[in-house]
Amino acid sequence: MTVDVLAIGAHPDDAEAGCAGFLLKAQARGLKTGIVVLTQGEMGTFGDQETRVAEAHAAAEIIGVDEFRILDMPDAGLELNYENALRIAGILKELRPRLVLTPHFDDRHPDHAAVPRLVERGSYLATRPALLPEYEPLFPQPQHITFSLSFQRPCPPSLVLDISDVYGIKQKALQAHGSQYTPLLFAVEIAARYYGMMVIAAYGEGFMHKEPLALDDALAII
Fold first, then answer.
1. What is the pTM assigned to this prediction?
2. Residue 16, Cβ density class (10 Å: 0-12 exposed, 13-18 middle, ≥19 buried)
3. Rg, Å, the chain Cα set
4. CA neighbours closer than 13 Å in the CB half-sphere of residue 171
5. Domains in the chain, please, with CATH?
């Protein structure tokens, strides 16, 4: 299985909060999507590990991604090291996404902020033929954009996607994380309305990119 768009989050609810709308819109265009969760959320304030893993699987089914994986990296201890980056490289070499979505580099949660750096390093390692030789090198590296998960310190977006037509499904996916989002759904809705307001839409998702995005179609940004 390969995918076109891959969301990588630190915790079982990160992708749903930050980019479920993007994944749903991509699927509507016929693209294959995936979610990879690096930890099992065992250090969360609410919900135990077993509950959070079950909620993550339920949410992935609601979104309808083609590929879903949950790894076992340590929650509240996600480190930028070679071992973790190599695991990311293996996933990228296997799934071969063209676009990767992650939390933002400047997120206030250290696990969230570690993910884009692991993806940067893993993307480079995925180009090396001598590493994980069971897979073909991944070149060019996938494009990489980030989303903000911080309600207290949201990052100004470089682009905003109108998700008004799929927001109801995103909301259902978040509701699947009952141990986490029952008291926080209003905050996610406020964020979606905040980003939507920027593009005169009911709901939006904001994304940032660190490097130039490569386009092969002059109309792709319209």
1. 0.96
2. buried
3. 16
4. 17
5. 5-208 (3.40.50.10320)
